[in-house]
Write a structure and sequence with these properties.
The complex is a heterodimer.
Chain A lengths: L2 H19 L5 E9 L2 E5 L2 E4 L5 E3 L3 E4 L4 E6 L4 E4 L4 E10 L4 E16 L2 H4 L5 E4 L3 E6 L2 E6 L2
Parallel strand pairs in A: 9-10
Antiparallel strand pairs in A: 1-4, 1-6, 2-3, 2-5, 5-8, 6-7, 7-9, 8-9, 9-12, 10-11
Chain B lengths: L1 H14 L5 E5 L8 E7 L2 E2 L3 E2 L4 E4 L7 E3 L7 H8 L6 E6 L9 H16 L5 E5 L7 H21 L7 E5 L20 E6 L1
Parallel strand pairs in B: 8-9
Antiparallel strand pairs in B: 1-5, 2-3, 2-4, 5-6, 7-10, 8-10
Classes of the chains: A alpha+beta, B alpha+beta.
Chain lengths: ~150, ~200
């Protein structure tokens, strides 16, 4: 094999390894269940929140008066979102190997139940939740936030 | 004093009658974590809410926390908890020395794994391969990846969608049973599968 071909092969292998080491690195969660009017707002796109759909950092989850969404994150955090809600995952970084990260959720209106996962365990305020008037630091627990309209 | 009272009244009026609230609960294992109030209306705060089965009205730097009491959760709160996805479940499969061959006991775990994925809505499967410390670090990276892919290929052969699965190999970096280098360990020759 010539040097060029070898180089090309090496580059290809490195690329392939990178793909295998970081599968779908940007994916942060998946929708598990949804009911009624339930959508993901991603930039200017609005996607139905169907089971199995992947979420990315920056996504906003929106439900109507009959809407519900539940989802599981890659750090094992679990969410259930109630009707008339608007909940954004503003920031989500997770290092699967070291099991550390940072996580900021904004609850602009409606209700959100949370069972925290590995990010909350990785540092005192690694997981935060913002409501219109309060910023909370989550220290490993289960809770419900309600933000009435 | 009067001014403070007026400020509070003005704040309450601005905030309207509906106030955000936090219900704090023990986790499914019965442990009680806490939530810190870091900021209120853009100002730093430092209160810690730590009592389980409690309700706290948010918006005050020193919020009042009350026990849920006999009334318990509101109907919509209970419905929200019922709607939470099931916790992640993990499976361990063990391998014969230096190979991608499952131990006989682990073959039956495959079926339990498949059944768990089948009952979940919108499932996601994370497959993580490991080795013991026999051989070089590099060859173990390779072997751990092949073990993970072996499990993944089996799941695909059972009709599962490849796109819900991911596989990584961590070589001999994460021993479940710590050993010196070049030590055979049945416990370390494993693939961990997390189903969400």
């Amino acid at each position: 094999m010539g040097r060029q071909a070898l180089l090309r092969k090496s580059v290809f292998l490195i690329f392939l390894t990178a793909l295998m080491m970081a599968p779908a690195s940007a994916q942060i969660a998946r929708i598990k269940h949804s009911a009624g009017n339930a959508a993901i707002e991603r930039g200017s796109n609005r996607l139905p929140a169907v089971p199995g759909r992947q979420l990315f950092a920056g996504d906003r989850l929106v439900t109507g008066k009959d809407g519900r969404i539940s989802l599981s994150f890659i750090d094992n955090t679990r969410f259930a979102i109630g009707p008339n809600s608007s909940v954004s995952v503003s920031e989500f970084q997770y290092d699967r190997t070291r099991q550390r990260g940072s996580f900021l959720t904004k609850v602009d209106r409606g209700s959100l139940a949370v069972v925290s996962g590995k990010i909350a365990k990785s540092g005192p305020d690694a997981m935060k939740v913002r409501t219109p008037n309060t910023l909370l630091g989550v220290r490993g627990t289960k809770f419900i936030i309600d933000v009435p309209k | 004093m009067i001014r403070a009272g007026l400020t509070t009244a003005a704040f309450l009026l601005l905030g309207g009658c509906a106030t955000s609230s936090l219900v704090l609960l023990p986790d499914d294992e019965g442990h009680q974590g806490s939530v810190a109030v870091l900021e209120v209306a853009g100002q730093p705060a430092g209160a810690i809410i730590a009592s389980g089965n409690s309700r706290t009205a948010l918006g005050d730097k020193t919020p009042m926390t009350k026990p849920l009491g006999a009334k318990g959760l509101k109907k919509q709160e209970a419905a929200l908890l019922t709607g939470l996805p099931p916790p992640a479940r993990s499976f361990r499969l063990y391998f014969e020395q230096g190979t991608v061959t499952l131990t006989p006991q682990s073959v039956s775990v495959l079926n339990a794994l498949k059944a768990e994925i089948a009952v979940r809505s919108g499932p996601e499967v994370e497959v993580i391969g490991h080795t013991d410390t026999i051989g070089s670090g590099e060859s173990n990276d390779n072997l751990s990846m092949r073990r993970a892919e072996q499990v993944l290929s089996w799941l695909v052969s059972q009709g599962l969608d490849r796109s819900i699965m991911s596989a990584v190999g961590r070589g001999e970096r994460e021993l479940t049973q710590p050993t010196a280098d070049n030590v055979a360990s049945a416990a370390n020759r494993r693939v961990e599968v997390i189903v969400r």
